[in-house]
């Protein structure tokens, strides 16, 4: 396809006549379709290996088409819509050749030959601009295609936005507001097909694997970042859902997302888009320039895209600009900016706030933009706090970047061809996580924070959240990321022994970053606020336990005095990481479209052999892996693995209406002194009892080696919070966990890798049909079922705490001496007075995860006197999604109340579009099914509480386009047409008081896009 621009340019050279050079029949058909504007519908797999002698001086499209098809065994038939269907001629008794992969798009990472079957056939469909009749085109497995035209008509503004609209993308991922995303993978965004985790979705660009984001998802698994992919350079996105590991290799358990960049350019196209929200903020622009040229046998297509996005802050939106937006009295608690706590030795050492007096807070009232005030927490006491500082964080990150892309080819005289695809990008991204804080952290990492203050004679705890003025402004304390991506694939294609096509390809992809986090140096802050430690102090708590704490002679006035710029600079520092990841692959592929004959036609065969290597290195700041920064001890991680694989696919037309496809591959990995390997296979069946109906089914097995970071991550800590179920149930029985004094305990979560992890395995199957009863209508319905075993996940702290309670109290069938209980109890660390201090987790092979459901699509086209109308809809209903994290525990229904999971059972998408002359318009609607509310997610919902679910939500985008001429057009888009806000959830008590995995408060936004093409064929 990289040559199509040159062919198109030649075809356009002489108006009034049609000239097409000799060569591949599919390429010539694509060129004719683009030049004439005629819709050509055919199965691209049938065209593989077919060649044409070309056309010279044809007077019209019909004449050119007749000459192109002469001697090919195919003929053209027009349907009522005006589209032309290319079918086998009646006199031709044999079926078409079996599908073979397009050489330039074979993915090096797994089954290059097989991977290209869906890619190739969809290339043809989208170039010719028609999907009707689908029953004669689609294969055994369902595929979803989103074209550049779909992206524009849908009003989508980023790649993550496009993929979020896919109904099959049902997993919970990290948004730009996610604390985990800010702390572990700042700026990166993911896709999660079938809700099985981002690491189980294989992401390709032009059919090639790309390097993972160099930091792990949630500090755990590897994944592919889709946030920096250039939206304006995408020709289409192809999504194959369900297990495809036997064809694509590992990472394809839940499906494959293939981004196809533009490879046709017969002129220079300039595309500019400007946007901002209705409130006049979050301004953005995107400039894309693409073009190509041909010199003899050399062809080149190149493009570049620059983009800029201004940050949107929490305080820019009324729904989340202060703690007053919280849904409950407890959630509206003013943030504790200046807090002094003490243990009352006259009241069994109960904890209370030390009253700073109103005059003290009044002296601080000018801070945080005048929001500091004297306030009280019921049952605890008074402190100086700010209701506004909670909104000091970004909703949308600031981003600036540029991407470049080139596709090159040179055709030799002997029929072979050299090709190369090159991609490079650089992006700078900034976000604000939250204001920095401090409390006492000891050199051994103890963050309990209590000390004996000689000046007061009390055991105290001090806490400071630094104000905007002390920090010198918010932009001085942002998490800054510089992302650099590069990828190149080069190789040769040609023909051996007349019937065997070959491809040899070498690919390299890398992702390097420089990420800087603002941090407080613990020892310096300790000295600034508390002075030098003078010793230790031992006291007895209410239960008679001896508790030893450090001793300081600290002046309380120091806590309540704002820091000067110099003082803040003395305790503030940036910790900088330089993570990087790489992947390389060498592949050799052979295909034969006419291996042997069957009653339905020729059988096609493809085989591939691969060598590959994958590596990553976190390269953290060495100080970040020690107890140096306050509340931050990270882990290192570095590792690599090698692999080799052989694979083959056979497509057999058993009968004129029945096709069978089988594929198998053998993979072996080598890492950490181990060499796991396995044979996997898949099969697909297509039955066409009539031309308008396709009945199909597929089955596949999968084998997936554990992620590198699961295996090689070093020991490290991070800070999180948990419910101390044991203390709540024993010391405050009957109290809701949300209201329990131990319902939000800060802990140190420790983690390390696991080199003994077993590979993941799965079985997947689909069954469905595609029906095209008329040229203007097609429908599809497919059932999917994925059963994954030995899945690797991090053990969750919440589960450890629940197991600890059950094992200690003998609840829910737990036995303290069981293997599970012994393991869980050893993971929990408590202080001398019984307070929870730390929880240890690590990756484990869980028993099983299953999901099944139905995908349905419909496409309707009506040509009326007032224009052409199209209606495109898709719907996914998940019948079940179950998980069993340990062999000896119950299966959890992830949709059940109090399951602790946040996934929708249903998603739907519908687009209505209209075209007439120079005008076109579309409205895109999305429906997200119900989600658990805060209590159900936290597993504390009880009968009588507000409903355990948030109702379904709807969002709409609209787009209007006008063509000035065939080389110039303008479009206007409105995103979130009805300015819908996140749904109100009275149980979601954590800022920003709504589910950030699925919603944001950006609101209605407007975009204007102008496209102009200089030279070449029409837009």
Characterise the protein shown here.
The protein is mainly beta and 1019 residues long. Helices cover 14% and strands 45% of the residues. It has 20 helices and 55 strands. The chain has a 22-stranded antiparallel barrel. Strands 17, 18, 19, 20, 24, 25, 26, 29 and 30 form a 9-stranded mixed β-sheet that branches. A hairpin with a 5-residue loop joins strand 22 and strand 23. Helix 1 (4-11) crosses helix 2 (25-36), helix 2 runs antiparallel to helix 4 and helix 17 packs across helix 18. The longest helix is centred in the first third of the chain and has 17 residues, at 112-128. The radius of gyration is 31 Å and the shape is elongated. The two termini are 18 Å apart. Residues 1-16 and 90-132 have low confidence and may be disordered.
């Amino acid at each position: 396809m990289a040559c199509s621009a040159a062919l198109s340019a030649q075809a356009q050279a002489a108006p009034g006549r049609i000239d097409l050079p000799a060569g591949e029949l599919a390429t010539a058909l694509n060129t004719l379709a683009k030049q004439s504007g005629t819709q050509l519908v055919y199965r691209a797999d049938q065209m593989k290996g077919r060649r044409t002698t070309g056309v010279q001086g044809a007077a019209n499209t019909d004449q050119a088409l007749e000459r192109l098809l002469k001697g090919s065994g195919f003929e053209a038939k027009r349907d009522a819509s005006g589209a032309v269907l290319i079918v086998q001629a009646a006199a031709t008794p044999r079926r078409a050749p079996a599908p073979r992969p397009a050489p330039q798009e074979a993915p090096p990472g797994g089954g290059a030959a097989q991977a290209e079957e869906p890619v190739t056939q969809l290339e043809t469909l989208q170039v010719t601009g028609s999907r009707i009749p689908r029953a004669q085109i689609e294969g055994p497995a369902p595929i979803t295609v989103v074209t550049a035209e779909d992206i524009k008509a849908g009003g989508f503004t980023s790649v993550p936005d496009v993929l979020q609209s896919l109904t099959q993308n049902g997993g919970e991922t990290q948004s730009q507001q996610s604390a985990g995303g800010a702390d572990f993978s700042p700026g990166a965004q993911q896709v999660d097909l079938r809700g099985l985790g981002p690491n189980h979705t294989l992401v390709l660009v032009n059919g090639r694997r790309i390097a993972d984001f160099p930091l792990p998802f949630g500090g755990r698994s590897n994944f592919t970042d889709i946030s920096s992919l250039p939206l304006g350079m995408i020709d289409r996105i192809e999504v194959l859902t369900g297990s495809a590991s036997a064809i694509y290799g590992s990472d394809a358990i839940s499906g494959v997302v293939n981004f196809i960049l533009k490879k046709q350019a017969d002129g220079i196209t300039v595309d500019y888009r400007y946007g901002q929200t209705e409130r006049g903020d979050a301004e953005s622009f995107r400039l894309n320039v693409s073009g190509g040229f041909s010199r003899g046998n050399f062809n080149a297509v190149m493009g570049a895209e620059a983009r800029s996005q201004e940050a949107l802050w929490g305080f820019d939106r009324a729904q989340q600009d202060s703690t007053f937006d919280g849904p409950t009295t407890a959630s509206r608690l003013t943030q504790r900016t200046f807090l002094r706590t003490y243990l009352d030795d006259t009241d069994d050492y109960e904890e209370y706030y030390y009253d700073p007096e109103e005059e003290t807070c009044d002296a601080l009232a000018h801070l945080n933009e005048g929001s500091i005030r004297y306030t009280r927490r019921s049952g605890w006491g008074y402190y100086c706090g700010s209701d506004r500082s909670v909104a000091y964080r970004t909703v949308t990150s600031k981003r600036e970047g540029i991407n470049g892309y080139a596709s090159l080819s040179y055709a030799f005289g002997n029929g072979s061809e050299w090709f190369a695809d090159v991609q490079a990008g650089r992006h700078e991204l900034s976000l604000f996580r939250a204001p920095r804080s401090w409390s006492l952290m000891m050199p051994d990492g103890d963050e309990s924070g209590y000390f004996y203050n000689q000046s007061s004679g009390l055991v105290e705890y001090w806490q400071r959240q630094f104000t905007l003025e002390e920090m010198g402004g918010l932009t001085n304390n942002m998490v800054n990321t510089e992302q650099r991506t590069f990828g190149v694939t080069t190789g040769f294609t040609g023909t051996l022994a007349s019937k065997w096509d070959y491809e040899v390809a070498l690919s390299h992809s890398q992702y390097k970053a420089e990420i800087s986090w603002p941090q407080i140096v613990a020892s310096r802050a300790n000295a600034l606020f508390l002075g030098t430690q003078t010793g230790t102090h031992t006291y007895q708590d209410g239960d008679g336990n001896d508790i030893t704490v450090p001793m300081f002679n600290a002046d309380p006035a120091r806590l309540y005095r704002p820091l000067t710029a110099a003082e803040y600079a003395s305790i503030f520092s940036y910790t900088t990481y330089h993570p990087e990841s790489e992947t390389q692959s060498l592949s050799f592929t052979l295909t034969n479209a006419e291996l042997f004959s069957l009653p339905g036609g020729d059988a096609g065969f493809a085989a591939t052999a691969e060598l590959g290597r994958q590596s990553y290195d976190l390269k953290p700041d060495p100080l970040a892996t020690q107890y140096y920064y306050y509340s931050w001890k990270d882990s290192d991680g570095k590792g690599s693995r090698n692999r080799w694989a052989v694979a083959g696919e056979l497509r057999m037309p058993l009968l004129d209406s029945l096709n069978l496809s089988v594929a198998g591959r053998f993979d072996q990995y080598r890492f950490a002194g181990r060499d796991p390997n396995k044979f996997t296979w898949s099969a697909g069946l297509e039955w066409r009892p009539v031309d308008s109906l396709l009945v199909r089914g597929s089955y596949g097995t999968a084998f997936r080696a554990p992620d590198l970071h699961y295996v090689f991550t070093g020991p490290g800590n991070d800070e999180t919070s948990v419910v101390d179920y044991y203390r709540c149930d024993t010391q405050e029985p009957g109290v809701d966990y949300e209201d329990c004094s131990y319902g939000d305990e800060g802990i140190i979560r420790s983690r390390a890798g696991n080199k003994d992890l077993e590979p993941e395995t799965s079985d997947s199957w689909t069954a469905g049909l595609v029906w095209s009863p008329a040229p203007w209508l097609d429908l599809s319905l497919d059932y999917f079922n994925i059963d994954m075993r030995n899945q690797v996940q991090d053990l969750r702290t919440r589960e450890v705490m629940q197991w600890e309670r059950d094992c200690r109290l003998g609840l829910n069938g737990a036995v303290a001496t069981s293997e599970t209980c012994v393991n869980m109890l050893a993971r929990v660390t408590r202080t001398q007075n019984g307070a929870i201090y730390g929880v240890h987790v690590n990756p484990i092979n869980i028993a099983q995860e299953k999901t099944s459901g139905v995908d349905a699509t419909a496409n309707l086209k009506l040509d009326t006197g007032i224009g052409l109308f199209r209606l495109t809809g898709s719907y996914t209903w998940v019948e079940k999604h179950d998980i069993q994290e340990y062999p000896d525990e119950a299966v959890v229904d992830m949709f059940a109340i109090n399951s602790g999971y946040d996934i929708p059972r249903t998603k739907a998408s519908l687009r209505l579009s209209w075209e007439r002359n120079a005008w076109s318009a579309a409205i895109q609607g999305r429906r997200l099914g119900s989600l658990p509310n805060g209590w159900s997610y936290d597993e504390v919902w009880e009968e009588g509480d507000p409903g355990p679910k948030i109702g379904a939500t709807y969002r709409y985008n609209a787009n209007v386009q006008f063509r000035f001429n065939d080389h110039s057009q303008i479009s206007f888009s409105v995103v979130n047409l009805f300015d819908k806000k996140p749904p109100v959830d009275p149980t979601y008590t954590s800022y920003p008081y709504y589910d950030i995995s699925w919603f944001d408060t950006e609101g209605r936004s407007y975009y204007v896009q102008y496209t102009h093409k200089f030279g070449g064929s029409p837009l």
